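In practice, a research group might receive sequence data for several interacting partners and want a quick structural hypothesis before committing to experiments. The following worked case mirrors that situation: the sequences arrive first, and a predicted assembly follows.
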Amino acid sequence: MAEMPIIDPEKCDGCGLCVGVCHCNALAIVNNIITIIETVECDWCTDCEVVCPTGAISCPFEIIIQEP
Amino acid sequence: MAVQLEFLKSILYFSDLGLAELESIRKLVFEKTADRAEMVLLEGEPATNLYFVASGAVKVFKTSAEGKEQILSIVRPGESFNDVPIFDGGPNPASARTMGPVLLYGIKKNDMEAILRDHPRMALNVIKVLARRVRHLVSLVEDLSFRHVISRVAKILFEHIGGEMGRGPRLTQQEMAAMAGTAREVVGRSLKALEEEGAIKVDRHRIIITDKEALQKIMEVPY
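A structural hypothesis for the assembly, expressed as C-alpha cells:
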C-alpha cells in the first residue's frame, strides 16, 4: 500500500485547489470533501499541502538513518 | 465565460466599489487560462499585466544564476500577482508558474492606471495589498539573510530519526518550519541544500540520513 498524503476532513472546506495542483490525479472531491485515491504515481511533491488554504492536507516525512 | 462581478467584488482591490463601478472595470478585465507548469511571467521581462487568480494556484519565485528557485509566494483564488511592476513601471521582479490548471483575470498596465484615476477610492485597498506584500517579503528576507536555518533543520532531522522500535514521529515541512522558526519555503530550500551536501536523500515520503557525520557537522554551525 503506497503511503499517501493525509487529509483532515474537519479542516477541508472543499475548495478543490489541491485537486488542480495534483499532477498524478491522487485527489478528488467527494461530497465536498477531499478524498485520496491511492496511487504509486504520487511522488510526494507536497504541492497539495502547500496550496491548501486551511491546512487540511499534510505530507509528513519519515526520517530514517541509512545503516552503513 | 464572462468575468463574474461577484468575483471582482471579492478581490480586495475592488471590494469597496459599487456594482456600476465594477461593471465599468469588468470591461477592461480579460481572461487567461493556462495548464499546469506554464510560465505566466518571466523575471526581468517588461511588465504588461496585473493578474488575479480566479481558480487554481500560481507559484511566484526567483531563480538564482545556478538555477535554484526561491518561492516568494503561492497565489490563491482572489489574490493578485505582479502588482509591483504595474505601479513602479519596472520589469517583472519575479517569475510565475502555474501549479495546476488556472483561470486568471488580467488587467493591462495602462488600463489599471486609468481604473485608479477613475476610482481613487480603490487606492487605499491597493496600498493594503502592497503593504501586506512588503510585510511578507520583509519576513522572508529576515529568514533568508539572518538565520542559519540549515543547521537548525539538520538538528530537527537528527532529533526525529525513527528509532529501532519502528517509526519515529513524522514531520511535515510546515512543522519543521515552525520548529526552526522559519518559513516553509526556507525549509524546502534547506532540505535541498542538505541533499546537495550529501547529508540526506529525500526519497518520496522518507528523508534518509545518508551521512550522519556530515549532518552533525552542519548541525554544529552556530546559530
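Before designing any experiment, note the following. The mean pLDDT of chain A is 92. Residues 24 and 41 of chain A are 6 Å apart (CA to CA).
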